[in-house]
Amino acid sequence: MSDSKKTSTTKLGRGAVAIIALVVIFIIAILINLLVGSSGLRFDLTEYKTYTLSEGTKNILKDLETPVTVRYYVTDDSKVMSPGERTRARRVEDMLNEFVREAPSRELELVNDDGEFETKKVRMLTVQKLNPEPNTDAEDNAIIDGLQAGVSGETNNELFFGIAIECIDSKESIPFVPARPETLLEYDLARAISNVHGGKDKKVLVMTGMPVGGGFGGNFQAPPQPVWMFFEQLGQDYEIEVIPSTSTEIPEGTNALIVLHPHDINDAGQFAIDQYLLSGGNVIAMVDPNFFYARAMAQGQPQMPGMPPQGGPAPISDLDKLFPAWGVSYDPNRVLADLDFGSEILRRGNFSPTFLTLDRGSLGIGNSPGLTDPMTRMLNHLNMLTPGAFEVEAPEGIKVDNLIMTSTNNQLIGAPDADPTQEGGPDRIRKEFQAYGKRRGLVTRLSGNFKTAFPEGDPTVSSKDKEQEAEDAETETETDVPKKDSLKESTAPGRVILIADADFIYDANVVRRSQVPGLDIVIPEMLNENLTLLQNAVEQMAGDPNLINVRSRSSVRRPFTRQNEWYREANEKYSEEVEKFSAQRQEVETRLTTILSQTPENINQALLSPEVQAELRTLQEQEIDFRRKERELQKEVSREFRRKLATYKFGNTLLMPALIILFGIFLALIRRARIAAR
C-alpha cells in the first residue's frame, strides 16, 4: 500500500473516531441531564442564586415545631395545560421538593389506630400533589381551600394551578400561581408557612389622613379609591388599621406605627407619637416637602395656580415638634436635587435631578450600614420623586444609621422649581446647580433612649387645667386612682425609621396591576423595590426577620444605569452650545416682543416703516436659525449616545465571539506546528 493511501486511511480513521467521540459525549450529557432531572437536583449558576433557597427560607423551615401541610393543586393534563404551563408547573414542584428537603424531621407523640400515644419521627413539611379533575374529591378540596379555576392562556381550557398551606387550624392559599420569577414564589411560600405556623399576632397602625385603606377620601362625588398596595401586602402578614393624623393616643399592643405624609397632623398627634416612642415603640415616618402625586389624588378637581390641590392632601408634610427633639434637620420647603441619581423622564435624554433612581451606590458607606444592614443590603433599585433630605445631630443616647443616602453631588432647591414636568425645569436646575459636597440621608434610622419633645406635657391640656391637676394630685387620697403622667424620657429603647419621600410608596410609583385571564385576581408587577424596603422596615420592627432575607431577593432588578451615564455625558458635551443658542433665541424673542408691544393695536405690520419691517424679518430669521441649531445639537446628543450604545452592542455581539474564534485558530496553529515538528 502506498504512503498516500496510508495517510488517507489514517485521516479517515481519526475523523471517524472524532465523530464517535462526539456522539458518546452527547449521549452521556443526555443521560446525566435525565438522571439529575429525575432526582430533582438543580445546580444554580446564576449571579443572584435565583434557583437556590435563601438563608431566610431555610431558617423559617428549620424553626418549624408543628407539621405544616402543603397541598399543590395542578391540572396535570397535556390536553388542558400548554407546554409552557407544564414546564412552569414542574418548576413549582421542584421548588416545593426543595422546601421539603430543607425541612427538619422531629419526634412527636401521636395517637395510633389503637388510641394510644406513640413517638414517631415526622417530617415538619409535607407536600401533597393533587389533580383536581372535574367532579372529583380533589376539585371539591381545591374549592374548599380557596383556589379558583383559571383559564389557560394558550389552550383556553379551564384549569387549577394553586397552593394551599395549612398548620393545625390556620390556613393560607395562593389561589393561582402566576408566571413570575422563582424568587417571588419562594417569598410567597415562605411568608405563608411563617404565618400559618406562627400566626398573625402583630399589630401595625398607619397614621395618615389619606385613604390608604380605600374609600372616598373625603370626596364623595368621585369614585372610591382602591386600597394602596403596601396596605394590602402588609395586611397579609399583620393586623393592620388606619388611624387619623390627629389621634391623641396610640393604642396599646401596637408593634409598629407607620406615619405616612402627615400633612394634617397637629400637636396632639405628634404628642401621641412622642409618648408611643418613649414607651419603647417603633415608628416609620414618611414626610415630603413636595408630594408629587397630591395632584393625582385631587380627583380631577380644578386647581388654582400656587394653591394646594382641592380634594387631595397638601403637598407638604413635617413633624416640626418631633424632629428638633430627635436632632433631625429637615426643611419642608426645599426639595433634594441630585445630579448623580437623576432619572430619565418624559423623553429619552431628558433627565430630572429631582426624580431619583437609586442603585447600590446610594446605600451607606463608611460608618453607615446600608450595604450590610439586613433591611437594605440586597436592594438594587429604588425610586423617589421630589424628596426631601435629612441631616442628623442626634442627642446623647441616640444611634444614627444612614441606610440610604444621596451622592455628594446634591443640592436643596425650592419646591416650586422641583417639578420636572414644567418647561425648562430640569435645565434650569442643572444650570444653577451648586453641589453640597456631603451626602445627606434619604432613609435614616434612629434608635436608643429618646427624650420627650413636649417637656410641658400634653399640649391639648391648658395651663389652667394643668394647675388644677397639680392641686388635685396634692389632695389625692390613697384610694384615688392616680392619673397617668406623660412620659419625659424613654422607659424602653425605641426606634424610628425616617423616609424623606411620600411618593415613595404611592401605587403609581410602585406597582403595575394586571388581571389574570378568567379570574378575579390582580397580580402586582413591582416597578422597583420601594415596597420591599417598607416591608423590610416593618419586618425589622415587628415581624419575622427571616422574611427580610427572602423578600429582599424577590425583586432583583438591574437598571441600565450605564446608559443613563452615557446620556448625561453626551448632554454635558453639548450643553454650553445649547445654552448659548437658547440664550440668543430668548434675546431675539424678547426684542420681537418689545417691538410688537410698541406697535399700536390698530396699525397693521405692513404699515410700519421699512426699517422696522426689515428688523422684524431679520429677528424672525434669527429666531428660526437659533431654533434649528438647538434641534441639531439635540440630535447630535442622541447620535453621540447611539454611537456609544452601538459600540457596546458590537463588543457584546461580535467582538467577544471574534476573539474566541481567533483564540481557537491560534491554538490550532500552535497544535499543528507541534505536530509538524514531530
Could you please describe the fold and organization of this structure?
38% of the residues lie in helices and 18% in strands. With 678 residues, it is an alpha+beta fold. The strands form eight sheets. The chain has a seven-stranded mixed sheet with strand order 10-9-11-12-22-21-19. Strands 4-1-7-8 form a four-stranded mixed sheet, with helices on one face. Strands 15-16-17 form a three-stranded antiparallel sheet, with helices on one face. Helix 2 (55-62) packs antiparallel against helix 13 (546-552), helix 12 (530-542) runs antiparallel to helix 13 and helix 14 (561-597) packs antiparallel against helix 15 (610-677).
